[in-house]
From TrEMBL:
Protein name as catalogued: Cation transporter
Taxonomic source organism: Nonomuraea diastatica
Taxonomy of the source species: Bacteria, Bacillati, Actinomycetota, Actinomycetes, Streptosporangiales
Coiled coil start-end: none
Compartments reported by the entry: Membrane
Domain Cation efflux protein transmembrane: 59-251
InterPro entries on file: Cation_efflux, Cation_efflux_CTD, Cation_efflux_CTD_sf, Cation_efflux_TM, Cation_efflux_TMD_sf, CDF_Transporter
Sorted UniProt keywords: Membrane, Transmembrane, Transmembrane helix, Transport
Gene3D superfamilies: Cation efflux protein transmembrane domain, Cation efflux protein, cytoplasmic domain
Biological-process GO terms, alphabetical: intracellular zinc ion homeostasis
Domain of life: Bacteria
Family: Belongs to the cation diffusion facilitator (CDF) transporter (TC 2.A.4) family.
Length: 347
């Protein structure tokens, strides 16, 4: 949405070339008034496509984790391994982390209302908080089990099957982690990335079962709890990364490179004399922008508006995952003039 600052009175337009320029500007404004793809169907379709990809990732990864847990459950029945039983139950529970994300993606499809004027995209950030809490719970549970096993060592049976189950658990979780993280970054969903990191922690837990079985096979029963402690430390590092990702979203942080890219795009627009404040924020997996530009102080209202519209148009085309932009045009000059003097006491 383009905005302009205080209107400036244009000069006479009686000459032919001035009239031609006016017609060109009116033509541009007609383009603005006509329903534009960035403000209607295309933007909505792009947002729905991103949500659909997220839902598809959740469904496929949910199926993969359930299959992994079922394979482990069969081996638990054959081996009687309590450690593997814990990992199997953990994988079943972790498959269910897709539920809050699926709810968030579904909510994100809802249209904005007079109460939720920016829509429901922030539901993804709330789901991300839940996932971070689940990663923290995973770290606490893994650490507790490892310390308990250090205090009370226990023998393991059917080590070969237990080791195989550990490999299955690691491979299944790592595949899900890579899939979620890749698509999450492509569609800009911090919550999906956090959930991918969560799956990676579960892979580490399964790997601990494998390494512990190997140590027990070599006659060192304490290998299992020691490795468990090390894996708990690794999960804590993953927890830090996931928490930082969600914290940045909740605090409206963006990559400074995106700000620099937006400034370059605006500076290249014909009629932009200077680039002022540029603000970006994530709403779900979409970006919104609020920018200020300076135009000639003697430009007419129509000319200033046309420059603002072109700036918005360029931003929408060239800035990745940008769904909406508000461009405010201020008169640039005359020297020493403050066009916002009346607002100084409010800033």
């Amino acid at each position: 949405m383009a905005e302009v600052g205080p209107p400036q009175h244009g000069h006479g337009h009686g000459h032919g070339h001035e009239q031609a320029r006016g017609r060109r500007l009116l033509s541009k404004l007609r383009h603005v008034i006509t329903p534009h793809s960035h403000d209607s169907a295309d933007k909505t379709d792009t947002a729905l496509e991103s949500s659909s990809r997220g839902m598809r990732v959740l469904a496929i990864s949910f199926a993969a984790l359930i299959a992994t847990a079922l394979v482990q459950a069969v081996i638990v029945a054959l081996s009687g391994s309590v450690a593997l039983l814990g990992d199997t139950l953990h994988n079943f529970a972790d498959a269910l982390t897709a539920v809050p994300l699926a709810i968030a993606f579904s909510l994100g499809r809802r249209a904005a209302t007079r109460r939720f004027t920016y829509g429901y995209g922030r539901a993804e950030d709330l789901a991300g908080v839940v996932i971070v809490l689940l990663i923290g719970a995973s770290a606490a549970l893994a650490g507790f089990e490892a310390v308990k096993r250090l205090i009370n060592p226990a023998d393991m049976q059917a080590l070969g099957l237990v080791a195989a189950a550990g490999v299955v658990g690691f491979l299944g979780n790592e595949w899900v982690a890579r899939y979620r993280i890749r698509v999450g970054r492509e569609i800009g969903s911090a919550a999906l990335v956090a959930d991918g990191l969560h799956a990676r922690t579960d892979g580490f837990t399964s790997l601990a079962v494998l390494l512990g079985a190997g140590g027990a096979a070599l006659g060192f029963p304490l290998a299992d709890p020691i490795v468990g402690v090390l894996i708990t430390v690794a999960i804590c590092f993953v927890l830090r990364d996931a928490a930082r990702e969600i914290y940045h979203r909740l605090m409206d942080a963006v990559d400074p490179k995106l700000i620099a890219q937006a400034e370059e795009i605006l500076a290249a627009v014909s009629g932009v004399e200077r680039v002022g404040t540029v603000r970006l924020r994530w709403v779900g997996h979409a970006l919104r922008a609020e920018v200020e530009i300076g135009v000639r102080h003697d430009a007419s209202l129509i000319e200033a508006h046309a420059v603002a519209v072109e700036a918005e148009h360029r931003l929408m085309h060239e800035l990745p995952r940008l769904r909406a932009a508000t461009v405010h045009a201020d008169p640039d000059g005359p020297a020493g003039t403050d066009h916002h003097a009346v607002l100084l006491t409010h800033r």
